[in-house]
Design goal:
Length: about 260
């Protein structure tokens, strides 16, 4: 099995694409976002694991560069041999427990190879580091650093956008875990309802991370709303199939733009 907290950044970016002049060069933009994400799934076990994830994310955009840092709080209720973002740990039993604390800090840097307002095309390359800051022996993380690189392509039409991502993730070594490095990807679209609201769908796929798990497949529907020139809100619901995905979940995020 493998548990994954949601990649909220794709949903946020879909909203920004539809409700901002993202393709116009606006240097020195800082966004601060937070909210709550909840997921539940059995991941091939007889008992469910519930994960509550509360991230605080700062994002700074200048020219063709974008830098992002996420510091989360995470709470996990479920079998003790199940670890958030990882799956089974061989050194624990399967008694149900609740543990909470700081999650894994994630830092990323993106560069726009193509950023054309005329064609409505945006092509980014991104590098990510997930630091092993979550408590390993509480089952909140692996205790190891993970690394990923990905490329994302966005095409904006008059009232809709389509986007996709392809990436590769390298898991750090950690006692008690045997994880395969994996390719992953996503496809999605966003439809503008009016000048304040857009909605869309994202489909995610990731290779199996262990010999006993299957690939992760998930579907997310989302709604983005521009509240005013400074505030935006995203809500979403998701579901997955197989032993590597949550059965269901959802969340809401608020984003404030500062200059």
């Amino acid at each position: 099995m493998n548990i994954s907290t949601r990649n909220i950044s794709k949903i946020i970016l879909a909203g920004l694409l539809m409700h901002s002049h993202l393709l116009m060069a606006e240097p020195g933009i800082f966004n601060l976002s937070s909210g709550i994400d909840f997921s539940s799934g059995k991941y091939g076990a007889s008992k469910s694991t519930d994960i509550t994830y509360i991230p605080l994310t700062g994002k700074y955009e200048t020219g063709d560069w974008l830098f992002k840092l996420t510091v989360p709080y995470i709470s996990v209720t479920g079998p003790a041999n199940t670890t958030a973002n990882i799956g089974q740990a061989v050194y624990k039993n399967n008694d149900v427990r609740t543990d909470a604390g700081m999650g894994d800090v994630v830092a990323s840097s993106s560069y726009s190879l193509v950023n054309s307002a005329r064609s409505g095309m945006l092509l980014d390359v991104t590098g990510k580091v997930k630091f092993g800051t979550a408590e390993k022996y509480k089952g909140l993380g692996s205790g190891a650093n993970d690394y990923a690189t990905e490329s994302s392509l966005y095409k904006i039409f008059e009232r809709r956008s389509v986007f996709g991502t392809v990436g590769y993730k390298v898991f750090g070594a950690s006692q008690g875990y045997s994880l395969n490095n994996v390719f992953y990807g996503s496809l999605g679209f966003s439809q503008k309802i009016d000048n304040q609201v857009s909605t869309g769908l994202i489909v995610d796929y990731r290779q199996a991370t262990t010999v006993w798990s299957d690939p992760q497949k998930m579907w997310t529907v989302f709604l983005n709303k521009k509240i005013d020139s400074k505030w935006k809100m995203q809500t979403y619901l998701f579901s997955g199939s197989g032993t590597s995905s949550p059965d269901f979940g959802g969340g809401a995020m608020f984003i404030k733009t500062m200059r």
